[in-house]
Recover the amino acids of this structure.
């Protein structure tokens, strides 16, 4: 994409009273991409051609597992979205609105939520009673489309999602100018923000040796209360179930920049396997982000299917697998990155044979702090994990 | 004690005194009675008394004394409602209707292009003078009093031929009503040729004898000489007459009420004009003042007379046993075979012999020798034998082209379709159904001028405003009425006649502005032998069949068991040698299954084409909407792009607009010169002769004479 002199436009925004905005390099790149998009449309209109956008297809058929890189990648299929096509005209218009909204945010140095952007862009079309957006799902989908088209993450478009996930450990960092000491965050922990880009979050000193990522908030509290991170010198994180992009990004950066290994403690059920899979390889929906969020070396500590016998758990903690679970388990077993791994096939087979699933909390039936004092340390010491 | 059969004798004795009251008659009868009978009567009474039973109030004899003939006119005088004279408003309308019907029939039979003058003048608080004149063949001097002064006298009862009047009651009943309510006689002027004198009569009906009483010219009527002297005579005697070479005028003064809106004279004349496009009607209503130039003209849209219907003989399937017996006794000296072939239609000698064979009666038997039993067998045989349906040249339908013209002349709309069914038969009577439909255009309510609205409000007897709106205007259902009232910010219970001027103004504004398309119900115009039927719609087979048709499949919305909604007027015409009415007043058609079937088929045929047209219209609308979509989003896109890269918004918009036009140009190629979408499958609609599509709705058919005949055609 050719450089254009217009990048300075942002600085000379209309209202002279607004403070000048400092644009990061990333921002500048995003702006350039947006402007290029717009310029192409102007050229098309000039040449009396039908303006269009090529949006990479985010469907399963366009997702490939890259064996060498060990994460999911998007293929090259794309869908053409045209202005002069009755069924696409409205979506095309909405796409451009999202682009212009994004530009405005970048120009003004502000971020907003998905819903915020929805409100920013929602208005009635001149001369009609029709609204540009009827509900937020429309704008959310188009934001993802634009991410993929511009090859920018949502955060780079200055849009954030809800926070979910907390972190404690022996590490300090700077978050939009504020210094955070994660070893002194009390019982709540540091709430991992949605935008964890280098511009916003910079790492300070870190003495932790590894990262332990757990599925749920409640499990995380157990570990925090027992000060596991202190005794074992690690960073303790959780994602509130399926971890949001902020958490994944944080894990990715910690793993890659600070070279910290990542271990996961998740429930013994298809959902847990799936969370692990997403952390490891990336998600189908956000396959275009895999290269910036996937951690192929993540290890799966537990809960394992054999733990019922190994830990001698009581029958009362068993939860029967239902039909959906079974179907899901088989699906996961067929994922290209699990397909050829014998240990994983055995693991899933075992769970199906068991006919039940186990939650991490079931270990409490043995002892309140069994998970922090016995289970996890044993697994780490024996290096008993799945890859 | 032997009772003598003296009743008849006693009765005969008292007959010559028709004017006696009952008691007197009874007394006289008692006097003339045989003493033997009297004693019987007394004896009975005494016997009764002595036996302890109650004495009778009257005996068979005394009751017999008061039994006598009742003349037809007496009967109808007391049962006016049977003939359509229930209330003053209806009476006025029926009078005009009967006179106009007769005029039209006479002109058509004579082969003259009809021109009719209708004058209605108010002569008292509830009194009107109605004059109807035509340019017909006129009436022979001798017949004039009988036609107007005798009930059940006429030419049409005994023949089977399509005509408006059927029994010969109408005009005489109107005259009788006039005399009854105002005491003024019926005035008739008739002229057969410009060179011969005209005849002038003033007549009353003697109801007891059912005979005319001529009041002028010493009981002989007057002759008006032709030429200038005649004109002077007319002037001098104040006779009303429009100068024509030949024609008839009848003037009746009666108690009546003049109202406009539904069921009014104006509506009747307008509907008559629709069904009779060859007629020219001059109408002077009571509001325009007597003898002034303010006259409404319903002009003719064709110079062709309708085809003359032929008279036919009755068909065997349509007669009853009693009628067969009567016909047999009338046909003297004929053999059965001759009788059957000559008295009935579609009975050949082969058919006649078959009938006789089935009945077991010889073909050469004389009709006089056919007894009751044989007649019965013949009757059954006629029913069972297969006889061809009657020929249908006895009916003259209006025809699709004239239906369209007539409807288009009077009813505003965008789309017209007409369907004439082939002739059919019910109970041996040929009949034919025709349907015409007009869609689109504004309701009369939208166009009513302010002063007319004021007048209507004054005249109406509707209690509330809502009632007023629904009963006065065509196609205004209660939904539409509510809309108007809401728009005008008035209470629906406002009394219609007591509205203040400011309120009337608001109402008028609302009526102009509210789009009534959604609130209108279908307006059904019913005709029997080209005569509009205005009353008793619910009882009429036509309305029932219209309601029973599924209009939803043709694109109109319809709730169950009612008329569909939409700006649509439908006209249904039944032409027959004998239209079966539900009552004497000839207001509603009876539902025979054959008639219902034909009605249904006719309605469906018109409905289908309406459906095609509406679908097409919807498509065009949708196409229009689609083009609009591009235009809508262009603006947004241009703004968004220029926000991003500071491009020239207007320039970008214009360029995108060009691309849009180029894109939709291919779609445009499918539009025809008028800018309407033409789908090859539906081009047929344009070429169909039974369909008329106009671009814009037409003005109302009513014109002021002063403006001349400038009717627009599409």
């Amino acid at each position: 994409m050719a450089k254009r002199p217009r990048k300075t436009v942002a600085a000379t925004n209309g209202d002279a009273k607004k403070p000048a905005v400092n644009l990061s390099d990333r921002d500048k790149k995003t702006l350039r991409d947006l402007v290029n998009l717009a310029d192409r449309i102007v050229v098309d209109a000039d040449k009396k051609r039908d303006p269009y956008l090529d949006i990479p297809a985010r469907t399963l058929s366009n997702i490939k597992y890259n064996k060498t890189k060990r994460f999911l990648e998007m293929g090259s299929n794309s869908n053409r979205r045209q202005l002069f096509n009755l069924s696409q005209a409205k979506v095309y218009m909405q796409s451009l609105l999202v682009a212009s909204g994004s530009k405005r945010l970048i120009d003004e140095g502000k971020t907003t939520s998905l819903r915020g952007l929805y409100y920013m862009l929602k208005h009635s079309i001149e001369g009609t009673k029709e609204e540009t957006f009827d509900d937020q799902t429309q704008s959310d989908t188009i934001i993802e489309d634009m991410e993929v088209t511009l090859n920018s993450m949502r955060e780079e478009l200055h849009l954030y999602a809800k926070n979910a996930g907390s972190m404690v450990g022996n590490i300090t960092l700077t978050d939009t100018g504020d210094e955070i000491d994660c070893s002194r965050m009390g019982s709540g922990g540091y709430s991992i923000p949605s935008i964890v880009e280098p511009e916003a979050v910079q790492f300070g000193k870190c003495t932790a040796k590894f990262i332990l990522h757990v599925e749920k908030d409640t499990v995380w509290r157990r570990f925090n209360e027992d000060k596991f991170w202190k005794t074992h010198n690690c960073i303790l994180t959780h994602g509130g179930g399926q971890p949001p992009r902020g958490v994944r990004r944080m894990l990715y950066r910690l793993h890659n920049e600070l070279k910290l290994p990542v271990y996961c403690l998740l429930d013994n059920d298809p959902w847990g396997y799936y969370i692990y899979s997403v952390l490891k390889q990336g998600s189908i929906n956000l396959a275009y982000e895999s290269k910036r969020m996937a951690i192929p070396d993540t290890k799966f500590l537990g809960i394992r299917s054999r733990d019922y016998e190994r830990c001698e758990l009581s029958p009362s903690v068993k939860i029967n697998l239902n039909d959906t679970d079974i179907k899901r388990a088989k699906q996961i077993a067929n994922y290209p990155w699990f397909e050829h791994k014998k240990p994983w096939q055995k693991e899933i087979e075992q769970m199906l044979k068991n006919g039940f699933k186990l939650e991490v909390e079931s270990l409490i039936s043995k002892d309140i702090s069994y998970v922090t004092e016995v289970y996890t340390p044993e697994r780490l010491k024996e290096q008993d994990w799945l890859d | 004690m032997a009772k003598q059969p003296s009743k008849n004798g006693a009765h005969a004795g008292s007959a010559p005194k028709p004017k006696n009251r009952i008691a007197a008659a009874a007394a006289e009868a008692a006097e003339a009675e045989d003493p033997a009978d009297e004693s019987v009567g007394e004896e009975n009474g005494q016997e009764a008394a002595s036996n302890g039973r109650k004495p009778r109030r009257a005996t068979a004899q005394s009751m017999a004394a008061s039994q006598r003939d009742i003349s037809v006119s007496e009967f109808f005088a007391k049962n006016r409602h049977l003939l359509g004279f229930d209330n003053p408003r209806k009476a006025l309308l029926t009078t005009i209707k009967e006179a106009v019907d007769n005029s039209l029939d006479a002109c058509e039979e004579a082969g003259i292009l009809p021109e009719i003058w209708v004058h209605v003048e108010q002569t008292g608080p509830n009194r009107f003078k109605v004059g109807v004149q035509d340019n017909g063949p006129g009436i022979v001097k001798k017949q004039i009093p009988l036609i107007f002064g005798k009930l059940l006298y006429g030419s049409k009862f005994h023949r089977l031929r399509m005509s408006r009047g059927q029994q010969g009651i109408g005009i005489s009943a109107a005259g009788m009503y006039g005399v009854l309510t105002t005491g003024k006689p019926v005035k008739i002027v008739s002229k057969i040729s410009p060179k011969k004198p005209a005849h002038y009569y003033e007549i009353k009906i003697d109801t007891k004898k059912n005979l005319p009483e001529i009041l002028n010219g010493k009981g002989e009527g007057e002759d008006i000489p032709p030429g200038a002297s005649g004109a002077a005579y007319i002037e001098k005697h104040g006779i009303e007459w429009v100068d024509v070479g030949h024609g008839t005028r009848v003037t009746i003064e009666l108690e009546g009420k003049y109202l406009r809106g539904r069921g009014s004279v104006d509506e009747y004349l307008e509907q008559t004009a629709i069904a009779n496009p060859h007629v020219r009607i001059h109408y002077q209503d009571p509001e325009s003042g007597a003898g002034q130039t303010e006259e409404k003209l319903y002009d003719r849209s064709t110079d062709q007379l309708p085809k003359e219907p032929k008279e036919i003989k009755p068909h065997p399937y349509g007669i009853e046993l009693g009628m067969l017996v009567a016909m047999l006794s009338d046909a003297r000296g004929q053999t059965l075979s001759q009788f059957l072939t000559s008295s009935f239609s579609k009975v050949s000698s082969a058919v006649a012999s078959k009938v006789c064979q089935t009945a077991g009666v010889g073909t050469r038997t004389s009709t006089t020798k056919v007894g009751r039993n044989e007649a019965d067998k013949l009757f059954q045989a006629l029913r069972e034998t297969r006889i061809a349906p009657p020929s249908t040249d006895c009916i003259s339908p209006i025809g699709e082209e004239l239906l369209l013209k007539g409807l288009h002349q009077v009813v505003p709309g965008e789309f017209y379709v007409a369907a004439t069914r082939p002739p059919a038969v019910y109970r041996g009577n040929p009949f034919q159904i025709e349907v015409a439909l007009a869609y689109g255009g504004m309701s009369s309510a939208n166009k009513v001028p302010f002063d007319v609205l004021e007048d209507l409000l004054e005249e109406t007897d509707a209690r509330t405003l809502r009632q007023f709106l629904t009963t006065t205007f065509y196609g205004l259902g209660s939904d539409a009425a509510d809309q108007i009232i809401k728009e005008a910010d008035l209470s629906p219970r406002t009394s219609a006649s007591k509205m203040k001027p400011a309120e009337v103004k608001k109402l008028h504004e609302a009526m102009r502005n509210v789009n009534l398309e959604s609130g209108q119900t279908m307006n059904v115009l019913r005709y029997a032998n080209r005569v509009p039927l205005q009353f008793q719609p619910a009882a009429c087979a036509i309305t029932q069949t219209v309601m029973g048709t599924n209009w939803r499949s043709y694109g109109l919305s319809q709730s169950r068991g009612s008329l569909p909604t939409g700006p649509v007027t439908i006209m249904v015409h039944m032409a027959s040698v004998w239209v079966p009415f539900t009552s004497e007043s000839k207001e509603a058609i009876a539902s025979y299954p054959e008639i219902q079937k034909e009605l249904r088929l006719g309605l469906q045929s018109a409905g289908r084409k309406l459906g095609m047209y509406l679908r097409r219209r919807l498509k065009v609308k949708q196409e229009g909407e689609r083009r609009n979509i591009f235009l809508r989003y262009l603006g947004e896109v241009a703004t968004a792009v220029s926000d991003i890269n500071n491009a020239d918004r207007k320039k970008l918009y214009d360029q995108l607009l060009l691309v849009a036009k180029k894109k939709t140009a291919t779609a445009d190629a499918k539009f025809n010169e008028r800018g309407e979408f033409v789908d090859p499958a539906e081009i047929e609609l344009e070429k169909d002769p039974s369909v008329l599509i106009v671009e814009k709705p037409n003005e109302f058919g009513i014109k002021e004479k002063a403006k001349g005949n400038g009717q627009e055609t599409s």
In short: The mean pLDDT of chain B is 77. Chain B touches chain A through 27 residues (CB under 8 Å). Chain B has 24 helices and 17 strands.
